[in-house]
Backbone:
C-alpha cells in the first residue's frame, strides 16, 4: 500500500468524508507548497498532544479548566448537560445560555454497548451539591438514545432538590445540536420545561 493510499484511508475515516473526497484532499495537499502541508501536519500533532478534557465539565481545552468554566461571569447555578463537547459551540451560538456545561461523552445506547457507566454521569452527580447547582437542563439530542439518556438522568436527579428541565422540542427528531441554527437552539432553551 502506498503513502497516498494510507493518507486517503485516514481521511476517509473522518465523518462526512467519503473515499473520493479523501482522495481529492490528498491530491490537493500534494499540489500545495510543502510548507502548507507541513503546517497542517504540525497542527494535527499539536491537536493530539495539547487538547484534553476540562477537569470540571469535559469540554475540550488546552488548560485544566476550559474558558467557560474559568469565566466568573457564568451562572454556576445553571448546568446544561450535553452529549458531546461539540454541542457547546451550538448552544453558545444562540447567545441565550450563560450557565455552565457538563459533557456526558455520549448517550445511552444498549445496542451499541453504551451504558450509564460509559458516560460521565458520576462526575455530573458529584458536581451538583458542591457547586450549588439549582437547575439541570438536559440538552441531549432529540433522538431515541438522547431521549433515553435524558429520562435516565431525570430519574437519577428526581430525589435531589434541583429543578430538572429538558430543552423544548423545536429541534428535529433524529437531528443533532451540532447542525441546528442559533435561533432554533435559543427557542429550545427559552421553552425548556420541567421533566415530570
Residues:
Amino acid at each position: 500500500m502506498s503513502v497516498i493510499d494510507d493518507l486517503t484511508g485516514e481521511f476517509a475515516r473522518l465523518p462526512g468524508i467519503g473515499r473520493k473526497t479523501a482522495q481529492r484532499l490528498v491530491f490537493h495537499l500534494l499540489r500545495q507548497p510543502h510548507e502548507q502541508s507541513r503546517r497542517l501536519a504540525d497542527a494535527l500533532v499539536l491537536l493530539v498532544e495539547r487538547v484534553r478534557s476540562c477537569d470540571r465539565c469535559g469540554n475540550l481545552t488546552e488548560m485544566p479548566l476550559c474558558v467557560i468554566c474559568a469565566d466568573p461571569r457564568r451562572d454556576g447555578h445553571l448546568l446544561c448537560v450535553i452529549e458531546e463537547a461539540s454541542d457547546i459551540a451550538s448552544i453558545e451560538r444562540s447567545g441565550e445560555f450563560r450557565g455552565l456545561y457538563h459533557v456526558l461523552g455520549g448517550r445511552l445506547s444498549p445496542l451499541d454497548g453504551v451504558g450509564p457507566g460509559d458516560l460521565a454521569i458520576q462526575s455530573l452527580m458529584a458536581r451538583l451539591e458542591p457547586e450549588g447547582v439549582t437547575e439541570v437542563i438536559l440538552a441531549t439530542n432529540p433522538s431515541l438514545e438522547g431521549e433515553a439518556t435524558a429520562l435516565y438522568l431525570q430519574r437519577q436527579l428526581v430525589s435531589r432538590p434541583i429543578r430538572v428541565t429538558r430543552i423544548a422540542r423545536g429541534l428535529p427528531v433524529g437531528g443533532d445540536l451540532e447542525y441546528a441554527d442559533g435561533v432554533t437552539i435559543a427557542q429550545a432553551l427559552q421553552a425548556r420545561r420541567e421533566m415530570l
Notes: The chain has seven helices and seven strands.
